[in-house]
Amino acid sequence: MSKKYRKGIFVVVYTLDKDNSPLYLVLKRKLHWSGYEFPKGGKNFLESNLHAVKRELKEETGLIPTKVHNHRISGRYKYKKELSDREGVIGQTYILFSARVNKEKIKLDEREHFSSDWLPFEKAHFRLTHSNQKDCLRIVNIWVKQRY
Fold first, then answer.
1. Structural domains of the chain in order of their starting residue, each with its CATH number
2. Which of 120, 143, 31, 126 shows the shortest CA–CA distance to 83?
3. What does the pLDDT look like over 45-82, one tens digit per residue?
4. Would you say 70 and 97 are in contact if contact means Cβ atoms under 8 Å apart?
């Protein structure tokens, strides 16, 4: 079987606090690796990017976005090891989206994540595990600050 990249999406999820400062959602990962991330996932065959964003957000957090923005930033990364549930897949591509949500109770997919936190930019940036996600958070934070 040929080695390939799985198509996917990154979703930087934010809400605004009382003074319109953004808070970002970070999730503590437990499936495949341990660390912090924001919601992300693979796209299903023939699924639109927008549908994938809404589906992954609902599956991983129980949240429904009030606003979704495609930042038209893409990238890819290799997995550190072969994943048993992704035979022949060596990594994932992604397109960056942001999703504004109302701050509600998070309903984690407990197979994938241990916990979640709403954090201001600096703390969220520090907590994220991977540099590509830190870069994506920085891009979204600049975009959010220009709008609110």
1. 4-147 (3.90.79.10)
2. 31
3. 999 999 999 999 999 899 999 999 999 999 998 776 66
4. yes
The structure tokens listed for 108 are 């984690």
DSSP 107-139: ---TTTEEEEEEE-HHHHHHH-SSHHHHHHHHH
Please give the helix or strand (H or E) that residue 143 lies within, else none. Answer: helix 131-147
In angstroms, how far is CA 66 from the centroid of its own chain? 16
Going by their DSSP bridges, the two strands 35-37 and 40-42 should be labelled as unpaired
DSSP assignments along 37-100, one per residue: E-SEEEPPTT--HHHHHHHHHHHHH----SEEEEEEEEEEEE-SS--TTSTTEEEEEEEEEEEE
Backbone angles phi and psi of 59, in degrees to 5: -65, -45
Q: What is the pTM of this model?
A: 0.88
Q: Which residues of the chain have pLDDT under 50?
A: none
